[in-house]
Amino acid sequence: MPKSETIPIPGATRSSGGGPSRRQARRHKEGHHTNGDASPSSRLRQHWTRTRVLLLNATFEPLTALPLRRAIVMLVCGKAEVVHGHPSGMVLHSASATVPLPSVIRLNNYVRVPYRAKVPLTRAALMHRDGYRCAYCGGRAETIDHIVPKSRGGKHSWLNCVASCARCNHRKADRLLSELGWSLRVEPVAPRGPHWRLLAEVEHAAPEWRLYLGSVA
Ligand SMILES: [Zn+2]
Questions:
Q1: pLDDT for residue 187
Q2: C-alpha of residue 165 to centroid of ligand 1, in Å
Q3: Where are the beta strands (DSSP E) in the chain?
Q4: Are 105 and 75 in contact (CB under 8 A)?
Q5: Cα 188 to ligand 1 centroid, rounded to whole Å
Q6: Coil vs helix vs strand at 93
Q7: What is the pTM of this model?
Q8: d(CA 74, CA 54)
Q9: Using the 8-state DSSP alphabet, how is residue 204 labeled?
């Protein structure tokens, strides 16, 4: 049975137009002056502040990861619907609506997203591309290595960067693969597509998001 609780999310229902947020506003005030307190309600609030919700286009294409509060506003305003509830199974109650706490939501109307051919090279996206595996030994990677070292003119680009374990990175230092007799397990490529835009921003995707992120997450 899913738990049914009221979660104090400041402003969650503010733009619903029906004014049901009085009770929540008052709830928000409680503990307002207890700066840095570690009461259960304050810890709970911090937890929900960090929680992200995956936003899908009407076509189920992933768009971005939203703060929970913004996702709830979209649900209450009727701009989106819940695709996957939060694993906690919690439900939000306001005077006029009952909304399951979401983990994945979908826009009711399709939005056209400007196509960005280049995916930004971030640590999160690079680790996803290489599956957290070292490009040289296949071990668990925790660093980024420039195949042609920067000190020798190598660029910070998708084609010149690979995930690497600390040991290989250290052993390779500022040498070229030809000087070491090393080879790459996989030839690096620049990723393309909407999933990557999202993965460049999110280091850890919730398990229930994977369905919508393709095989890369
Ligand atoms: Zn390695």
A1: 92
A2: 4
A3: 52-56, 62-67, 80-85, 91-93, 98-100, 102-107, 143-146, 161-164
A4: yes
A5: 15
A6: strand
A7: 0.54
A8: 12
A9: S
Task: Tell me the CA–centroid distance for residue 141 and ligand 1, in Å.
Answer: 7
Whole-angstrom Cα Rg for the chain: 22
State which H helix or E strand residue 44 sits in. Answer: helix 40-50
Rounded Cα distance between 72 and 80, Å, is: 9
- Residue by residue, pLDDT tens for the chain (217 residues) are 444 434 343 333 333 333 334 444 444 444 444 445 567 788 777 777 888 899 999 988 888 889 999 999 999 899 999 999 998 898 888 777 788 899 999 999 998 877 666 778 888 889 989 999 999 999 999 999 999 999 999 999 999 999 999 999 999 999 999 999 999 999 999 887 766 767 666 766 788 887 777 644 4
**Which of 170, 191, 51 has the alpha carbon at shortest distance from 128?**
191
Q: What distance in angstroms lies between residue 179's CA and the mean position of ligand 1's atoms?
A: 17
Dihedral, CA of residue 143, residue 144, residue 150 and residue 154, to nearest 10: 160
On the CB side of 132, CA atoms within 13 Å amount to: 7
CA distances (Å), origin 70, targets 9, 81, 102: 10, 13, 11
